[in-house]
Amino acid sequence: MDVTFSHSYECDQLTEIPESSLPHYYFPGATTKGGEDGLLLKVRSEHGQEWLGTFAFGRVSPKGISGLYTTPDPERFCVLARGEGYFVTASKPASWESVGAKPVTDVRIVSAHGLIVFADFTRLWAYGSTGLKWKTSRLAWDGLKIAEITSTSIVGEFWDVSSEATAKFVVDLVSGTHEGGVKEP
């Protein structure tokens, strides 16, 4: 678990469902009636409420990443399950939303700006303490890679088919505006 941001909950990844009477939520949907296979967590909120969560694996890419991250909101955490992303409020598991990037191919914490940034094959999505802060327009046709994060920007690269060379882009961390990237018609 990446604990860059302060948080008011505890999360443990489990390998099997324990024998317990804890409420068990399945995501997406936060239903207690069952769901798909996925990453299994035991969550305890600051108020002592405990619950189990199964977070469905993404289907778009076998290379989608998995992980557990604190977020700029101390009540919420982020789960990535093979590229599928979920934000959940620890004390209210029914309060959740999907990460916009699909599949998530990279995630970067930018603590100085209070951001967690996700990449998919073509765009970047930045979330702050109140939710989505910005998303870029298409930066690449495919294969977007984050190369560097500076104090003011994200520098990335992609294979530009038209020039048959690696091309770069620079995204402003505050606004999400960018220079470079593909030119859409």
Task: Give the terminus-to-terminus CA distance.
Answer: 41 Å
Proportion of helical residues: under 10%
Strand order of the largest sheet: 1-3-4-2
Overall average pLDDT: 94
Number of helices: 0
Give an overview in words.
By secondary structure, this protein is mainly beta. The chain has a domain at 9-133. Helix content is 0%, strand content 50%. It is built from no helices and 16 strands. It has strands at 9-14, 24-27, 38-45, 50-56, 67-70, 76-81, 84-89, 92-98, 106-110, 115-119, 124-128, 131-135, 145-149, 153-160, 165-172, 178-180. The strands form 4 sheets. Strands 1-3-4-2 form a 4-stranded mixed beta sheet, with no helix packed on it. Strands 5-6-7-8 form a 4-stranded antiparallel beta sheet, with no helix packed on it. Strands 9-10-11-12 form a 4-stranded antiparallel beta sheet, with no helix packed on it. Strand 3 (38-45) and strand 4 (50-56) form a beta hairpin. It starts with 8 loop residues before the first strand and ends in a 5-residue tail after the last strand.
Gist?
With 185 residues, the protein is mostly beta strands. 0% of the residues lie in helices and 50% in strands. Strand 15 (165-172) and strand 16 form a beta hairpin.
